[in-house]
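User: New here, please read:
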Amino acid sequence: MIRSLFTGITLCGLASLAPTPGNSQTTAPTYEPTTVSVPDTAPYLTRDGKIQIVGNDGWESMMLQFDEFFLQTHPGFKRQFQIVMKGSSVAIPALQTGVSALAPMARSIWEDDRFAFDRLHGYDPLDIHIGYAAFGPRDGRKSPPGIYVNARNPLAGLTIEQLRQIFTEGAKGGSITRWSQLGVKGPWAKRAIHIYGLDEGSGGTLAFRAQFFEDRTFTRTYEALPKPADIGAAIADDPYGIALMGFFDASKLPNVRSLAVATEPGTPFLLPTLENVSAEHVAFPAYLHVYIDRAPGKPTDPFVKEYLKMLLSAKGQAIIASQTDTDEGYVPLSLDKIAQELQKLN
């Protein structure tokens, strides 16, 4: 659903982002426009000369604001924009074939898409993070990928390494198969851990496993279920279960809770709340990605570079902030990360 173009924001006078606890910067960089042009030979131009951008449907409201702001800050720019926001699944194929200037996505690239892009071009698309795709838990709205247990489970949290020992084969320290190995008392102590998740071959599961579980094979007791709702129902009925979930709203299942996770032993167990996501103090950060086609050692397309500079500026980040209280729940990038992402463009 497309929300009002100007929801919560004035493009001509956007305020700087407030400082986030833990960040050394106090604001994202001010956007200083550079004159750019797009040649008629650019493959991402439509027949009538518009710049086409294909990507995630949840970005539609933001893209309208980004495009309008770009045109306002480049009064001599002769191109218009055509956005085709049909989902993350179409973004990489459009970038791969050159019909999209960039690929805005609310998840990381899936391995099949990466393989297809690399097979055609001989390299991977460059991944630029411009924000975070979700936070939670929030009632009636999605939370980012994470770990869920039955609401009666007494665990305060787990470390990433403990989760690797539970979910995968060959983790350091051996496998964890029983709740007693985690120090859980009472009826859990003698029970096996029941492990649930989506199909091992699904794109989201493969991406999560590669990013956070060191691409290890799932344990043989991993039970794959068809849909997130099926996994949630299984955990709600099984006090001895634990599940890996993608973007999911657990508020409709009163017997399920999100489990806090620590990145290292001795560090706090944290949920992906707005405060923690904003500071990137979470175990499993879920980014807003913009993939671009840039060969290693080659300069970034001038228009694409300028557009991404805008997204990573204070005003671009304020547009993302205008989506935080919507169903999408997008969050501006941690200020400490913005310089790293800008550096990638060079």
Notes: The mean pLDDT is 90. The two ends are 35 Å apart (CA to CA). The longest strand covers residues 126-132. The first helix runs from residue 60 to 73.
